[in-house]
Amino acid sequence: MKFEEYHYERPNLEHLKETFQQAIEGFQTATDLQEALNAMDTINQLRFDFNTMASLAYIRHSLDVNDTFYDEEKTFFDQHNPQFAQLNNLYYQALVASPLKAELAKHKGDLLFKKAELSLKTFKPDIMADLQEENKLSSEFNKLMASAEIEFEGEKRNLSQMGPFAQHKDRDMRKRASKATSAWLETHEETLDHIYDQLVNVRTKIAKTLGYDNFIELAYTRWGRSDYGPKDIAQFRQQILDYVVPLNTELNEKKRKRLNLEKLYHYDLSLNFASGNPTPKGGKDWMVEQASIMYQEMSKETDEFFTFMKERNLLDLEAKKGKRGGGYCTFIANYGSPYIFSNFNGTLGDVDVLTHEAGHAFQMYQSRHHDVPEYRASSQDIMEIHSMSMEFFAWPWMELFFKEDTEKYKYTHLTKALNLLAYTSLLDAFQHDVYENPSWTPEERKARFKVLGKQFFPYRTYDDDPYLERGNAWQSIMHIFAIPFYMIDYGLAQISALQYWAEAREDRDTAWQSYLTLCQAGGSDSFLGLLKLANRRNPFEQGSIQDIIQDVAAYLDAIDDTRL
Predict the structure, then answer these.
(1) What's the predicted TM-score (pTM) here?
(2) For 169-207, what is each residue's pLDDT tens digit?
(3) 3-state class of 550 per DSSP?
(4) How far apart are CA 61 and CA 363, in angstroms?
(5) Burial status of residue 492 (CB atoms within 10 A of its CB: 0-12, 13-18, 19 or more)
(6) Per DSSP, what are the bridge partners of residue 166?
(7) How far is CA 281 from CA 277, 400, 402, 412, in A?
(8) Read out DSSP for 336-350?
C-alpha cells in the first residue's frame, strides 16, 4: 500500500473516550495477569489508532499548509491532543497503582512504569486549556514560517529555497540573500516576539500549576530525562566552551584565509571553500538512486528498510510552494511505516537528509516490533544518535553523491558537527536563561542572546545587519518555539555519533553491530542505560568530550584544506 492510500479518518473522541475508559476499568479489575495483559493490548491499540491519524494529519498538513481540509484536521489535533493526554494519564495512574505491577514488569519491563510515573508529573486536567493554547501558538509560528515569500533574483522564494544563496561562492550574493531573509523576518519581528512571549508565559503557567518552580523542570520531565538534569547539561555546555569553541575559532581562522577575506561576516560562515561548497551531482531522483545503492551495500537491514520506504512512497523530499519548511521523520503506527519529509534545495544538506532522517526512519523500522508504544521510540537524546551516526556510517558511499567533492564533503561534515555542538549549547543556554526569567521583555531576551552568542561564537559578527545585531538570530528557529529544550539532544547525540565515526574507521563491523543493537532497542531503557548497552561513553563525564574532539582535530589537521 502506498502512502497516498493510507486511510485517514478523524477520530471519534466520544467513542474513543468510552472505549478507552472501559479498557482501563478492565485493567483495574483484572484478577489475573493474562486479563491485565489483554486490557493493556486493547489500550495500546487505541493509542496506536489515535497516533496514526494524528501522524497522517500532521504529514499531509506539512505537505501543503494551504490545504484547508488538513489545516482543519491539524487544528483538531492541536485542540484535542490534551484530551488524549488525559486518557493516557488515567492509564498511567492505573499502571503505577496496579497490584499486578511486579508481574507486569516482568513481561513489559520496568521502564514502562518509570515512564508512566514521569508522565504523571506532566499532566493534570487543570492545564487542558493551557496545553491547547501552547499547541495553537506553536502552530502559528510554523504557519508563519511556511508563508514566507521572499522576492529574490526575480522569483518569490520560501525560506528553504533561500538556502543555496546563503552558500553561494559570490560574496555579494550571500550578503544580499542574508539581507533579504532578514528583511522578511524583520517585518514579522513584533509578531514573533509576541508569539514567543505568549509561549513563555503559558509554559510557565503550566509548570506552576503542576507544582514546578519553572518550566525548565517540566521540560526535562516531558523529555523523559530520568537519569540526568540541568546541572549535568550545564557541565556538558562548559566542556563545549572549553574544548570545542577554541577549535571552532581556529578552524574559522583557517576558513578566513581560504576564502581570502580580511574579516568573516555571518553570511560568510556557510561557505567553506572559495571554489564553492560540495554539492550533490544530481537531482532528487538521482540522489534516491544513489541512496538505494548505498543502503543495499551497507547491510541487509538497511537494504530491506530503504526498499520499503521507496516502494510505499514514504519520502517527500523536494521544496515546493505551500510546503512547510525544514525536515523531519515521523512514524505511522498502524502501517508500521516511518515517513521522511524534507525540502531539497541543491545543497549538501540534501544528502544529509538521506542519511540523517533515514537514520531516524531506520531505527523506527528496526524497533517497530515492540508492542508497547513507549518502547518503539527512544527519548530524543538517543534518537538523534541514530540519525547522526547514520550520517557517518554513510561516509564510504559519499563518492556516489559528491564525486570529486567527496573530500570537501567529509571536511565540511566534520566541521559542521563541531559547529553544531556550539550551536545547540548556545540555544540551550539561552532557553535556560529565558525560562529562569519568564518576565524578561523581548529586548532583555535579545540582549542575553547577544552575550551568549559572543561566548559560543566569538568569531561571528552581525554589525552590518541591524535585525540580527539586535539579537534576533534565534527568531526563525522552530525548536525554540515549538519544541523547547530539544536542541541540546543534538549535541549529546553528536558526541556519541563522533565515537561511531572514530570506531568505524578502525573496526566497522563492531561499530555497526553496536549501532544496530541501539536501534533495535528503541526506547526500552533510559538514556544512560542505552548508551551502556551500546558501549558508548557518558557525555557528562569529564574527558569524554575532550578525547573525541582530539581525534577529530587530528583528522582535520592532517588535511591540507588550502587545496580543497
Answers:
(1) 0.89
(2) 999 999 999 999 999 999 999 999 999 999 999 999 999
(3) helix
(4) 24
(5) buried
(6) none
(7) 12, 9, 6, 16
(8) TEEEEEEEE-SSTHH
